[in-house]
């Protein structure tokens, strides 16, 4: 957004994030109890419609409340509420918004009359894809991109360290996963000794998954679940689904504005875990391996991302998306896990029960998805992703040529800490994804991963 843009111009353009950021001064003037909280949340790009409960609670006039609820039920965002003057006029603390909104309404009315006079529909701008924005800007082919990306591929000897599925050195023909997790509170054991080399750790490892306690990724309590998916510990999980943030020296949760010591605002019937503990996991015998294609075949680049839901055995893939080097969708399907789902994690995954229902024509079993992916991806394919070891783990695929954006753009605290894809998109691409009120979109995430790597390649090409 240009510095000269007025809030009214931003309103007219309909850019929701920049619109809200432009109104920070007006937000500061709000004297309601939720004013500072609204300012903090709006500045992160969240839309008005997400705050209906907080905002409606401050307006007791029945007519205004009914009008607000009716608009919110329609799913309208702030920028669409051009008839919001009734609500604004009822609350004199929003005089600044009323002034801006009235200006926008007048301008829109003038534009509408102008269009009617021309008696023709305004031409729509062509839809721009990554193919034209990114690839053509670099002016390189897929084969050239393969060569450029090879320098960012995870070295084969480091795949184990970064948590990718690898061939076991102790259990022939099986797969193990070494995972080093930050900030864990598991009981000390030889299986969680971070001073050990992962190869040496596997040599002395004895699988004992049924007796090993798991840690709930939500409330951090320990619980027991067997390898076959039977819950030994049956108790409700109470947790905050949001993250802690600091607002004017006050630490609060983003989900409910509760304090750091407050009781969780959400309840689930059981505890859940990611499917891996700190140390060696496995051995697994249900992984498939990518194979070498014809020697004459050109190496390809694909980007992969999975949406995941919780089962008793940990996270399971419930949706998989693959795009090619120019951002075009190659493969996308819902996946029905082998284990029973205990939490669809819909708030983040966007996956619902109906999506993986047996009669849904767009859902496949994990085995079917594996067969499909092995037809697309061979051992020479460069596979891009973010936290790609997790996607390969839930897909039960062994692949060695990988480029992981969480490794290419390392965390300032060092491994195993990693930046989120949301943070990388904002920092390097000035893009805002995974905003509150929106589910994660695997297609959007794959394209962001691709854009990040194209940005990185472009920067390095300029430096050289």
Textual characterization of the structure:
Helices cover 33% and strands 17% of the residues. It has helices spanning 7-13, 16-22, 24-28, 35-42, 52-56, 62-73, 85-89, 95-118, 130-138, 142-149, 198-203, 346-349, 366-376, 388-395, 405-408, 421-429, 442-463; strands at residues 166-167, 175-179, 214-215, 222-223, 237-239, 244-247, 250-253, 266-268, 279-284, 288-289, 301-311, 314-324, 329-336, 341-343, 363-365, 382-385, 397-398, 402-404. The model is unreliable at 14-61, 75-94, 121-136 and 184-194 (pLDDT under 50). The protein is α/β, with parallel strands linked by helices and 464 residues long. Among the domains are: 7-118, no CATH class; 130-156 and 288-463, Ribonuclease H-like superfamily/Ribonuclease H (Nucleotidyltransferase, domain 5, 2-Layer Sandwich), CATH 3.30.420. It has 17 helices and 18 strands.
Class inferred from helices and paired strands = alpha/beta
Give the CATH class of the domain at 130-156 and 288-463: Alpha Beta
Outline the biggest β-sheet. Answer: 7 strands, mixed
Global shape? globular
The CATH homologous superfamily of the domain at 130-156 and 288-463 corresponds to: Ribonuclease H-like superfamily/Ribonuclease H
Distance between the termini: 31 Å
Q: What name does CATH use for the topology of the domain at 130-156 and 288-463?
A: Nucleotidyltransferase, domain 5
Supply the number of helical segments: 17
Name given to the CATH architecture of the domain at 130-156 and 288-463? 2-Layer Sandwich
Total number of beta strands: 18
Report the uncertain regions.
14-61, 75-94, 121-136, 184-194
**What's the helical proportion of residues?**
25-40%
The pLDDT mean sits at 76
**Percent of sequence in beta strands:** 15-25%
Kindly provide the radius of gyration, computed on alpha-carbon positions and rounded to a whole number of angstroms. 25 Å
